[in-house]
């Protein structure tokens, strides 16, 4: 009697430890599809009757012949619902894209400013060279007119 009770207690203790270990092992989070083993499917489905999760493509494949099918994990007849999840990686990438877009906009703004300054400098430079040419022409005309006046006075 007493020895049998002791064996039973040890067996219960052992089973509890095994149960705790298996619960701990199965409680880790994973997005992996238990059917096709895709590591990170974008869309997943929850099987209605048992709560098992797989990728949407696998659920659709199993449900191809009808609405109800057997869960590949536990064989319960079930249907599925599409899970609506926030995709953190997608959000991070979108955030990175926004940062990249901001950097790109800033670079474009600086280039536009530099171009505008350059164009402004070119315009100023063109203006100065035109002004200098005109001034030279006026000086040339003035000189020519003066020469004609002098020649006219000399001829009279």
UniProtKB/TrEMBL annotation:
Recorded superkingdom: Eukaryota
Q: Report the InterPro entries cross-referenced here.
A: Znf_RING, Znf_RING/FYVE/PHD
**Which SMART domains does the UniProt entry name for this protein?**
RING
Q: Sorted alphabetically, which Pfam families does this protein's record hold?
A: zf-C3HC4_3
Q: Which CDD domains match?
A: RING-HC
- Name the chain's protein: RING-type domain-containing protein
Q: Does the keyword Zinc apply?
A: yes
UniProt-recorded Gene Ontology molecular function terms: zinc ion binding
Keyword list (alphabetical) reads: Metal-binding, Zinc, Zinc-finger
| Domain called RING-type: residue spans | 33-75
Query: Does this entry carry the keyword Zinc-finger?
Result: yes
Q: Where is this region: Disordered?
A: 1-23, 86-156
- Which Gene3D superfamilies does the annotation name? Zinc/RING finger domain, C3HC4 (zinc finger)
Spell out the PROSITE patterns in the cross-references: ZF_RING_2 (PS50089)
List compositional bias (Basic and acidic residues) regions by residue number.
1-20, 90-113, 145-156
